[in-house]
Structure prediction request, 280 residues.
Amino acid sequence: MKKIKLKSTATLVMHWSQELYQQKPLDRYMKYLDLNEGEYLIKRCDDICDWYKEVILNRKMLIYDNVILNLISNKEPSQIVIIAAGMCPLSLKILQNYENRVSHIFEVDQSYMEQKTSIYNEFYPEHSDNVSCISCDITKPNILKYLKTQENFDFEKPQIIITEGISYYISPSELEKLIKIFSSHDRKNKFIMDYLIPFNEVDIDRRKIPRDIFETIQEHCDIPTITSYSRKDIEKLFKENKWNLQEIYTLNNMEFQRKGKYKYFHTPSDGWIQIVIGNI
Ligand SMILES: C[S@@+](CC[C@H](N)C(=O)[O-])C[C@H]1O[C@@H](n2cnc3c(N)ncnc32)[C@H](O)[C@@H]1O
Prediction:
């Protein structure tokens, strides 16, 4: 099978997170990704901060751990929706260990979904019946319509909605509409999302890192605006919609959970990404 050429932002996140996928059977998946397109962007970001992968690894591990925690504690197998999944092999990582706790996984993205389906069908036939990759623009209201046409989709099942690495690139109103699509009257659905906090809320000695990284991505990928949220914005969003905010993690919480010690993020204001977990 021909390697899949990734665009620059997708390359960057795969480059930073690849050590999570080096073991069997995920290593096979990585062989089909061509990260060459992102070389220039990777080099520029590495010049800004050569340990930036720690941010992505902390984020990815916290999300994975929480997904697993929810899968285990839900009474019945859960349905998982991964918004803007890109080429991240999170589904495979989940299915590899917890397939019996999952009813079905839906991945949604405007790119790569056909190629991802081909990889699943060809190289992971043991899991491919349990994942559907759907090509769709997540800012358009028809996302649920698309999902509802899928054979295995069941809105009544407990769902885990993962929104990772995308809140920066869509507007606050697009984000709110997206969350509303998945909210249930009895708040049975778990929502997990990372977001960027405003640079002026990051420690003064640190804020240059996220500002330069995001400006570089924005300029290189021609992204019109980068959206950030303060903790207060997230609390307000949840309160106004009567969603239940369960927890907000800072990068220093994430680092401690992953490593058992603090190395790069000693205090909450040393970090610029947070993860919110709530019931919607
Ligand atoms: C930085 S990647 C994140 C991938 C993955 N969630 C992760 O964290 O590893 C951003 C992804 O968002 C997707 N994306 C951006 N805007 C989108 C939109 N309007 N609708 C659907 N997907 C979108 C891109 O195609 C890309 O795969």
